Amino acid sequence: MIADEPIQEDLDATDVNMGQEGWAADKAKELLDWLGINYNDAGIADQLVILCVALLISAIVWAIGKYIIAGSVKRVLKHAKSQNLPLIFNDKVLNRIVRILPTVSMLAFSLAFDKEGIVYRIYIKFFQLVLVFSITQLVLAVLRAIFNVISNIEKFKGQPMNGVYQLIAIFIYVICVIVMVSILIDKSPAYLLTGLGASAAILSLVFKDTFVGFVAGFQLAANKMLKVGDWIVVPSQNANGIVQEVSLNTVKVQNWDNTITTMPPTVLMSGSFYNWRGMQESDGRRICRSISIDMNTITFCTPELIEKCRQMPLLKKFFERHTDVENLTNLTLFRAYAEAFLRSNKKINQSMTLMVRQLQPTEFGLPIELYCFSSIKTWVEYEAIQSEIFDHVIAVVPQFGLRIYQVIASQPKD
């Protein structure tokens, strides 16, 4: 009885070890037993056979995962009531889930190797590293999908969510590297974390631009100074266009000539830039342009000019309000006509500021400014409306006995 006790203890230890291998390892052992391979005393030839079997099983598991499991999930998601589930469990997420299954299958067949041998250590470490990296990629894919869903929420539309995602991704990659290094050196991740305190200064130096960029990007978002889709002008960077992306280290702007300007977020925080979002969200886009009148042509109106202006439909209301016409000037009539012309234009927002005013006289004449807001804000149509207004105004100036001041170039001598 005494001689049998060590044998019984060995059997008990074997049972405990088999229990710790897990369900996948148990099934792998059953498969090897069915194939007639003694995994407890496997030689080189048996190990090669087991490796081939493991590769074959892993390929089958991958095929089942990709074409059956993932395919079934896609079909179910097509009929899901929630619109966010298909976005979260997209093709990238499902593919990365499928990649994990063969790695787990390969780890289950690690029992084919001597646990004290170099082959086992290389085999198990390699697939453990692959498993950690695959899980990291899966977590990042799910995280990206979640951020895409958040970005579609009205409250967060246009916010620089990409910068927040990148910061979290860096943190996840750091954890991944720590775990992978701990696997290689057979140390607990906690052992490595204790040494990070001494490396904090180095890490802060290496990732200085990243941290500063994140803080700047967060300030831009928190203060609602910038978001994706805004039209901005940054004179110091020669940028004038639509914001395409806001990340940790860069703000990407597509200029109107289709070139791309990239700059760090700190440039926008430390300098100045124009954001046209206020105009885009308002009811109109401002038109503010002037023409210079030759002051030598400004005179009191003659009876003939007054009679001529009475026949103009746009000045009908003006003469109803001004019955005394003795002291009227031709410039007064012109300003009244220009304002009435703007108020009759259906493309001008009549509820916003609208006026025709004089500016300070200069050596180039008396500037008359037209100030109003176009109800159409798109660039091409806005420019067309502005041009149509001034085409008409410039053409009508001579009707009031006025002349636009224009510097005449000196004529070359014969």
Q: Largest beta sheet: what is the strand line-up?
A: 4-3-2-1-5
Shape: elongated
Radius of gyration: 39 Å
Number of helices: 16
| Uncertain runs | 1-21
Report on the biggest sheet.
5 strands, antiparallel
Mean pLDDT: 80
H/E order of the elements?
HHHHHHHHHHEEEEHEHEHHHEEH
Strand content: 5-15%
Distance between the termini: 135 Å
Beta-strand segment tally: 8
Instruction: Output the structural class.
Output: alpha+beta
What percentage of residues falls in helices of 4 or more residues?
55-70%
How would you describe this structure to a colleague?
This protein has 414 residues and is of the alpha+beta class. The chain has 3 domains: 17-157, no CATH class; 160-281, SH3 type barrels (Roll), CATH 2.30.30; 283-400, Alpha-Beta Plaits (2-Layer Sandwich). The protein is 57% helix and 11% strand. It has helices spanning 4-21, 23-34, 44-78, 85-88, 91-108, 118-151, 161-185, 189-194, 196-206, 208-222, 265-270, 277-281, 303-310, 316-321, 330-343, 379-396, and strands spanning 231-234, 239-246, 251-255, 260-263, 274-275, 285-293, 355-358, 366-374. A 5-stranded antiparallel beta sheet has the order 4-3-2-1-5. Strands 6-8-7 form a 3-stranded antiparallel beta sheet, covered by helices on one side. A hairpin with a 4-residue loop joins strand 2 and strand 3 (251-255). Helix 5 runs antiparallel to helix 6 (118-151).
